[in-house]
Amino acid sequence: MSREFSFTLHKTDGQARRGTVHTAHGDIRTPAFMPVGTVGTVKGLYMEQVKAAGADIILGNTYHLMLRPGAEEVAALGGLHQFTGWKGPILTDSGGFQIMSLSKIRKINEAGATFQSHIDGRKYELSPERAMEIQRLLGSDIQMQLDQCIQFPHTEKEAEDAMQLSLRWAERSRSAFQSVSQPGHGNFGIVQGGTNEKRRLVSSAGLQNIGFEGYAIGGLAVGEGQKLMLSTLDFTTPNLPHDRPRYLMGVGTPEDILESVARGVDMFDCVMPTRSGRHGQAFTRFGRINLRNARHAADSRPLDGEHPCPALSHYSRAYLHHLIRAGELLGMMLLSWANIAYYQTLMQGIREAIELGTFEDFRAATHEQWQRGDGLRPI
Q1: Which among 56, 93, 256, 266 is annotated as catalytic?
Q2: 13-44, pLDDT tens digit by residue?
Q3: Has 269 been annotated as catalytic?
Q4: Which domain holds residue 338?
Q5: Domain check: are 257 and 320 in the same one?
Q6: If residue 329 lies in a helix (H) or strand (E), which one and from where to where?
Q7: 93 is catalytic
Q8: Is residue 1, in this structure, part of any structural domain at all?
Q9: pTM, entire model
Q10: Same domain flag for 288 and 265
Q11: Do residue 58 and residue 131 come from a single domain?
């Protein structure tokens, strides 16, 4: 399957945008939420469930797949699409997040990062060139530049150094991506710079000078809080190309997504739906519901009787409470499924509202419903 990688912007409503990303393995309706399939699996779900929930694209992780089973091994088995059975588009991150999160077992220099595997202690080198090679071997439709993401809080020097290094790595990543023909596949640059407006603008301008098929906003949702994250988006997204997709990495809660769409973001990913599901928390149109709470023990209502997903409409809160309290895998699977389905329903509602020019009404009504809940005290 081969087609040109491109982005079509269909409609705007304020800063909110509805579009389509065209890739080698199909189209992605935006705004889009990408379920995270770190090691080739969206935890607790079959790929058929992910697709039926409404997801157009999933995410895989370069670092983790590099360690196990290995990029060359996946390539020999037909690539990540064939390996996992997912027919649609796949985005792979570059390993930049692990440069931050695994700081105790890695070293970083101009050439790249050296990791000690958390699995068997072996050493691995991840340079911009190797990161792009791994993603090409995996066959992902959207391949991210290698960048340096840093934790919050940080010093001004740390943010400046990381932003400049990420720009230099962006040039090398782009050269490596373009060295091999990959029709229908795109390469995204990543804007860094902490929460400082000047640095963000320098980073954005530098990436646009290099030229990418899309632009991601990295280095947020790393401890700065929602207010600071949104204020950073306020001055970042208006300076990204209007005709390219914009991806906010690692975000987030339904509230974060709704507010970020209002600021011009097109794509999102986060482990929160499945991770929260494994810990007994459901996301619904009524807000968050903690199924560990004892007051659900005798509640015969489903999470949302009007939703088409069986995990939301077919099982009582009492049963889900029982499964979670008993540590049963089925409870974790059902809540993960329910959360992925709700996230996709939220994205579809957002897309429809933008198309109708009623996004602000949808945004206000959604916030009101979350605050009102289902007649129970919010948790």
Answers
A1: 93
A2: 999 999 999 999 999 999 999 999 999 999 99
A3: yes
A4: 277-372
A5: no
A6: helix 329-356
A7: yes
A8: no
A9: 0.96
A10: no
A11: yes
